[in-house]
Amino acid sequence: MEKNSNVEEFIRKHPQWQSLLEELRDILRSSDLEETIKWGIPVYTLDGKNIVGIAAFKKHVALWFHQGALLEDKAGKLINAQQGKTQAQRQWRFEEGDQVDGELVLAYVNEATENQRQGESVKPVAKKSLSVPDELVDAFSGNIQLKSCFKKLAPYKQREYAEFISTAKREDTRARRLEKIIPMILDGTGLNDRYRC
Prior knowledge:
The protein is of the alpha+beta class. It folds into two domains: 2-117, Aspartate Aminotransferase, domain 1 (Alpha-Beta Complex), CATH 3.90.1150; 134-195, no CATH class. The chain contains seven helices and six strands. It has a six-stranded antiparallel β-sheet. It is elongated, with a radius of gyration of 23 Å. The two termini are 34 Å apart.
């Protein structure tokens, strides 16, 4: 009962989308999937594996297919919300005034469910290895503390610093960028930390 009340609470938090959320929920509940709440949104699972979730935003509601890249998508409804970052997940967006084709939604859900039953999944691609630019390598050789602090940074922060220098086309720009980031590295700060919440 608690799961149902959590889903109902999610729907109440989005009054502008209430009827659409309820309609999508009814369609998903008519499938073989189990309704649960994960990350604060309704997620529909099969044997504990995430199949599809419902998310509400300012301008649209989306069905998130966790292995959506495997779906045939004959109707052309799915998009990759983060091209170049998201490998498996795809979403189907519904905007104000869109009509929901319940049979089509259920066909997508059933295909995703069958893919899960067959054990199909998108295998994650390993992140590319870190390529440290020569300017930074030279700075490490002259400053052991800098090298130590850099190694302590999370891999994504190391990658940000390396790309920050290597994307500069001119040598003097690379030098200025290196000069800018050395105190940040020594401080243990990431290049874009101030923009992160």
